[in-house]
Amino acid sequence: MKQGDLVVRKSYGGDVLFRIASLNDRMAILRGTDYRLLADSRIDDLETVQNPDELGGTLRARIQANESIRRMREERPPFGNVVSAPAADRRAYFEMPGKVLHLDGDANYLKKSMAVYRHLQVPAEGAHCHEAQMPEALLYLLPRVRPDIVVITGHDGLHKSRQDWTNLNSYKNSLNFVHAVHIAREYEKHRDSLVVIAGACQSHFEALMQAGSNFASSPGRIMIHALDPVYVAVRSAFTPFRETINISDVITHTISGMQGVGGVETMGRYRIGVPNLKTASSNVNIV
User: Fold this and answer.
1) Is the N end or the C end of the chain the one with fewer CB atoms within 10 Å?
2) Which InterPro entries would you find in this protein's record (predicted)?
3) Which of 128, 102, 123 is nearest to 113 (CA)?
């Protein structure tokens, strides 16, 4: 058994697929492959997995991920006045979805997330950094990228020996996320000018909201899927700036649902403009 191996925990019935992040003599640090969960385990409680597609939980999580991406694609605009306009008029518009800055503590999740943004044509920049480095990273990235939406995520979880939900020290990375949200709010205090989406599995929802998040995990201290923060970011990017994001609709359509993600009323970040230079240039006659 070595770093990078896919494993499940025997004592939990092999319910979640993990990748070994690090090993010492008796213990392993684990990162979920489908869920944003950080865990530790005795090495003798681990079982290696050769074919992850044979695991029911993994297959179910990937089916849910595909469904989430399909829903994002179908819910993509045009919205509002563009929808009611004749097709010829619609071609005169260009789109300005909200720009996303996505910080992720997991390189594989970041790669998957950026692929979704590209597929849906959401302008996005991503950065992989350890959760403890995110506050410092934001100090540099926020003024450079100037995003409309910032995603602060990675891995989290409750310590086995500390089950006090109200204490930030009971969490593996919630305090790091809280510090990062504070930096984001120092940069832009208005929740409708910068949409902040923060947290991972079992994160301290109340602390993240009090720090200034618009959306956060996890009200029920449950596992959240890797794409849940992406889904919320995409819906924020494609909701018109004059409309509030439909909180209950967005959250109930995440893979984790209301126990996994919560939030407050927030205006969208999508705009349209004229003229559509691609269409206009095709109609230019050069004399």
Assistant:
1) C
2) Peptidase_U57 (IPR008764)
3) 102
Residue with tokens 């909180």: 247
- Closest C-alpha to 254, from 216, 219, 215, 227: 227
Query: The tokens 């979880």 sit on which residue?
Result: 157
How many whole angstroms separate alpha carbon 130 and alpha carbon 285?
A: 54
**What's the pLDDT tens digit per position in 216-275?**
999 999 999 889 999 999 999 999 999 999 888 888 888 889 999 999 999 999 998 888
- Is the pLDDT at 57 greater than 80? The verdict is no
Q: Where are the alpha helices (DSSP H) in the chain?
A: 56-74, 80-84, 87-90, 107-119, 134-145, 174-187, 205-211, 228-238, 247-252, 277-282
- C-alpha 71, offset from chain centre: 15
Give me the helices (H) in 202-245, please: 205-211, 228-238
Helix (H, G, I), strand (E, B) or coil at 7: strand
Please list, in sequence order, all residues whose beta carbon lies within 8 angstroms of the beta carbon of residue 190, skipping any fewer than 6 positions away: none
pLDDT value at residue 58:
58
Q: Cβ contacts of residue 41 below 8 Å, gap of 6+?
A: 9, 27, 28, 30
**Residue-wise DSSP of 96-153:** EPPPEEEEES-HHHHHHHHHHHHHTT--EEEEE--GGGHHHHHHHHHHHH--SEEEEE
- CA 157, chain centre distance (Å): 16
Domain 66-273 CATH (choose: 3.40.50.12780, 3.40.50.280, 3.90.1640.30, 3.40.50.300): 3.40.50.280
pLDDT of residue 286: 46
Q: What does the radius of gyration of the chain's CA atoms come to, in whole angstroms?
A: 20
Query: pLDDT tier at 202 (50, 70, 90 boundaries)?
Result: very high
pLDDT digits (tens, 9 = 90+) for 20-31: 988 988 889 888
Return the domain boundaries, the chain.
Answer: 6-54, 66-273
